[in-house]
Amino acid sequence: MSSWAQVIETDSSVAASCIQSLYVLAEVGAVVDYTRNMMTEAGGGNCCSMSRECNRAAHTLAQFALSLDYDRYWLEEVPDCTVDVINADLA
After folding, report:
1. Are the beta carbons of 19 and 49 closer than 8 angstroms?
2. Domain count of the chain?
3. Range of the domain at 30
4. CA 24 to chain centre
5. Is 59 within 8 Å of 11 (Cβ atoms)?
6. Is 1 inside a domain boundary?
7. Structural domain includes residue 69
C-alpha cells in the first residue's frame, strides 16, 4: 500500500456527494459504484468537487467521449482533442 492519498476530483458536486455518502441517485449510481470500487482497490481515498475550469482537459475529453458510438482507449499518448487545452494549461 502506498503512503500517498488517493483523491478523485469531479466537476459534479452531486456525484462527489454520492461517492462520499451512502445516498446515491439512480442517475449516477453506476458511476458511483464503479468509483467506490476503484477507490477500495486503491486503498481508499476522498472525492471532492472542483470547478470545471480546474480541469478543462478532462471536461474536453468527456465531451468528446459523449460523441462516440464506441469505446476508445489511448496508451502512452494524449488524445488529440485535449492537446490545445493541455498546452494552454502548461503555458
Report:
1. no
2. 1
3. 7-90
4. 17
5. yes
6. no
7. yes
Spatial distance between the Cα atoms of 29 and 40, rounded to a whole number of angstroms: 16
In a domain, 56, yes or no: yes
Low-confidence ranges of the chain (pLDDT < 70): 1-5
Nearest CA among 11, 3, 8 for reference residue 39? 8
pLDDT at 69: 92
For residue 2, tell me if it sits in a domain. Answer: no
The pLDDT tens digits of the residues spanning 42-61 come to 888 888 888 877 888 888 88
CB 42 within 8 A of CB 29: no
Q: Give the cell for residue 7.
A: 483523491
Model confidence, pTM: 0.55
Annotate 14-48 with DSSP letters as a single string.
HHHHHHHSS---GGGHHHHHHHHHHHHHTT--EEE
Q: What is the pLDDT of residue 1?
A: 46
For residues 48 and 50, what is the distance between their CA atoms, to the nearest angstrom? 7
